[in-house]
């Protein structure tokens, strides 16, 4: 396939393709002072059994994006679950008459390609008095007439797609600033109403609750208190939240507090980051837009959030597959550049961005074959010889470190990055010494997640004393790097 150079950092195919080898990336200019031995090989959707990752394919219901313009790119990302909105107002433009053509085309194509749609039952429909609005931040249907029509639409949609869609979600960001009428109790009741309909038609459905727009601890507490009082927590498979912060690692305390509440009222319920991403251009539409973003800082943000979520047992959905051309009367009226594919003004896919390739590197490595070392702990100086893994790193800077091992071989992988600031549009490594107790490596290598570069760690930069492995002069910066056994990295 002919490759065309699109900019200084990467090459892309001149047209979309399902072939993961059709998307290749030239390593950015930042030099890594280690012997270069190859690159991470991306893996397509059908090559991965399961993983922690989901992909945002939102706003199709309002034509801010076009699934058919980017569908050929999805398989190359190695992600199976696709988040979409159901689009009541797009489907029922005349009271009592449903036109499913637009959604049929999307759902059938996605399933035929091996993807799993995760379908949200929103937004409202203004053809009914009190029917709510069809944009982000608009109210939920509240009148008797509108609620009856909404219930009929949900029932019809679930009946139509129950053989193809197993995952559902109720509404989107009910606590968004314009939704002042949506109290936690009203939202909880609406979630129960919707989930009850879905379960009555599809008992094995997996339903996501809440879809919180930003973490509001009081809102979460009151929402789950209401569910608990109604004995309705069992209707839901997971609870979703969206939390846009400039530093992708800065929300850990809020997430922890939310997790405590969820565990109190619904022990074992899965936490899911249902929508998260960063723009690639500053001053555009949507959350985080008032910062001078670039493609590189977007990519760093996305992969940091992905691996931070994985390291804290949160499922993670990336927002989104393509730039969205917002229009109309909603709160966002400019292009939202959080897409990992650039779009034209007519919604055509132009090219993958750096984040697209970086996410390929994450999905290629972090799948169901790995398990997290949950007892991993930090100590300034490793002295113990217990079975509990411990690590040390010689810096006062805040560094995220998460350890994993292959379930079958027990070989290990450690991900780390500087997490104390918003990602910067440059490469500024610190050369650190990393030690880990009870390490399990045959051939340790260094991996740069942004570029996909795989590098040898020379013998003079390694040492083993008992069961403590030490790696010296390892470049660590504000994007994830890995120290991993070579057997865990699919290379090209």
> What is the correct CATH architecture of the largest domain?
Alpha-Beta Barrel
Derived structural class:
alpha/beta
Number of strands: 26
How would the global form be characterised?
globular
Distance between the amino and carboxyl termini:
17 Å
Largest sheet: 8 strands, parallel, barrel
> Helical content, roughly?
10-25%
| Uncertain stretches | 1-21
In which order are the strands of the major sheet placed?
A: 4-5-6-7-8-9-10-11
**Relative strand content:** 15-25%
Number of helices: 9
Calculate Rg over CA atoms. Answer: 23 Å
Q: Give the rounded overall mean pLDDT.
A: 91
How many individual domains?
2
Instruction: Output the CATH homologous superfamily of the largest domain.
Output: Glycosidases
Please, could you describe this protein's structure?
With 492 residues, the chain is an alpha/beta fold. The protein has nine helices and 26 strands. It has helices at residues 67-74, 88-91, 101-112, 144-161, 184-201, 217-229, 252-265, 295-311, 354-365; strands at residues 4-5, 11-12, 36-39, 53-56, 81-85, 116-120, 167-169, 206-212, 238-242, 270-276, 315-318, 324-325, 335-336, 341-343, 349-352, 370-372, 377-378, 390-393, 399-406, 412-418, 430-437, 444-448, 453-456, 462-465, 468-476, 481-485. The chain has an eight-stranded parallel β-barrel with strand order 4-5-6-7-8-9-10-11. Strands 3-23-22-26-20-19-16 form a seven-stranded antiparallel beta sheet, covered by helices on one side. The chain starts with a strand and ends in a 7-residue tail after the last strand. Mean pLDDT is 91; it is low at 1-21. It comes from Paenibacillus mucilaginosus 3016.
């Amino acid at each position: 396939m002919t490759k065309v150079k699109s900019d200084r950092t990467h090459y892309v195919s001149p047209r979309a393709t399902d072939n993961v080898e059709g998307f290749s990336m030239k390593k950015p200019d930042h030099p890594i002072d280690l012997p270069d031995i190859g690159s991470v090989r991306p893996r397509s959707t059908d090559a991965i059994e399961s993983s922690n990752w989901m992909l945002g394919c939102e706003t199709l219901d309002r034509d801010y994006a076009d699934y058919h313009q980017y569908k050929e790119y999805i398989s190359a990302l190695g992600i199976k679950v696709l988040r979409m909105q159901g689009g009541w107002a797009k489907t029922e433009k005349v009271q009592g008459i449903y036109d499913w053509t637009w959604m049929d085309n999307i759902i059938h194509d996605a399933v035929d390609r091996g993807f799993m749609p995760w379908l949200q039952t929103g937004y409202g429909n203004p053809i009914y008095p009190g029917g709510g609005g069809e944009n982000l931040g608009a109210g939920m249907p509240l009148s008797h007439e509108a609620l009856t029509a909404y219930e009929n639409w949900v029932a019809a949609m679930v009946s139509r797609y129950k053989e193809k869609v197993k995952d559902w979600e109720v509404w989107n960001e009910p606590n968004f600033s314009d939704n002042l009428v949506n109290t936690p109790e009203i939202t909880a009741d609406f979630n129960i109403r919707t989930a009850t309909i879905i379960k009555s038609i599809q008992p094995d459905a997996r339903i996501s609750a809440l879809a919180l727009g930003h973490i509001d601890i009081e809102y979460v507490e009151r929402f789950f208190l209401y569910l608990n009082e109604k004995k309705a927590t069992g209707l839901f498979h997971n609870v979703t939240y969206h939390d846009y912060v400039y530093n992708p690692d800065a929300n850990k305390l809020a997430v922890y507090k939310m997790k405590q509440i969820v565990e109190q009222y619904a022990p074992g319920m899965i936490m899911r980051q249902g929508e998260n991403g960063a723009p690639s251009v500053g001053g555009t539409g949507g959350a985080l837009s008032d910062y001078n973003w670039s493609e590189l800082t977007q990519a760093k943000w996305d992969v940091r959030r992905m691996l931070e979520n994985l390291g804290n047992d949160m499922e993670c959905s990336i927002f989104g597959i393509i730039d969205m051309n917002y229009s109309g009367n909603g709160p966002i009226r400019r292009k939202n550049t959080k897409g990992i594919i650039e779009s034209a003004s007519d919604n055509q896919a132009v090219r993958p961005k750096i984040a697209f390739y970086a996410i390929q590197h994450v999905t290629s490595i972090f799948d169901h074959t790995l398990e997290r070392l949950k007892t991993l702990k930090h100590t300034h100086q490793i002295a113990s010889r217990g079975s509990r893994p411990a690590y040390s790193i010689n810096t006062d800077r805040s560094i995220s470190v998460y350890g994993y091992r292959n379930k079958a071989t027990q070989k290990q992988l450690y991900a780390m990055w500087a997490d104390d600031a918003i990602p910067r549009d440059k490469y500024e490594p610190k050369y650190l010494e990393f030690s880990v107790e009870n390490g399990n490596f045959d051939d340790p290598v260094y991996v740069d997640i942004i570029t996909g570069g795989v590098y040898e760690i020379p013998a003079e930069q390694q040492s083993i004393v008992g069961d403590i492995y030490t790696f010296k002069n390892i470049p660590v910066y504000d994007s994830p790097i890995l120290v991993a056994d070579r057997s865990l990295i699919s290379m090209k």
